[in-house]
Amino acid sequence: MINSNFQSIFTIQVWHSYFSDGACKILQFIPATATQQLVKRYGFLNRKVDNGFEWYANTTASLPSYLNSITKATGQNSFEFDIVTDSQLFYTYTDIAPNWKGQFLYSSKQTVTIAEKDTIQLTPTLQEGNTTLLGKVTLYFDDIIALINNSKPAPYSIRYKARATQWQYYIINRNTKPENNLEIKGKTTITFNNPQDVTINNGEKALLFTSSSPIALHEKPLYKFDLVSKSNIGTKPSVKVVYKGLPNPDPRNLDNLKDINQLASPMYVYI
User: I need a labelling partner for 259 at 20 to 30 A (CA). Which of 10, 111, 129, 149 fits?
Assistant: First the structure.
């Protein structure tokens, strides 16, 4: 910051449990038309950070008096931003109703205080409809003023949760030798239901394992499962690893489960 008169008014940080470090770096916040006019007139500055942005005012006055003077001069009492993203899969890996499309509307009038993280979480109102915008944020001057403490900016955050899906492993045996007593094992409490004999779309026979409960999608593989075969022949049971390191789901490949408001992640494994 070259000009020492700049003061930070507020910050917005975005978090998403889908990403490995929790930081959601795929959203951009663009000043809406009315806020762009304030930028031209008063010289507000938008400084991007990894997972959000900081908003600065170019003034030597106290921020409360400065914002109040802007309202008196212009009649405007808030900053407004459009949220956009280049990620085509955002609606897929985010925990929202299947096939829902619309906007996340955020307002400083609708928040939750997260004391342990020293932040004010903006909670969304979901508005259905096809749109090029992911959402909108409106921060009112009076709410910002109430949060400004000891010259520290108002600390806002937005949080998203990863979608959980039913994991489905289709095991297709193309070897002449059968594999019996197959199970899926991993170093986790997650379990898979007893396999079912099914026929996949190309007519091949498969053994279908489904997770006993939905599992959250993740940017990078978070769980390691192996396909094993158990044998009880002899005095000592043996376990053979048939397929080590089963794949984790791809968010581009989801199926709707019939009669259930739930999505499945099908994965095809050839042995």
Answer: 129
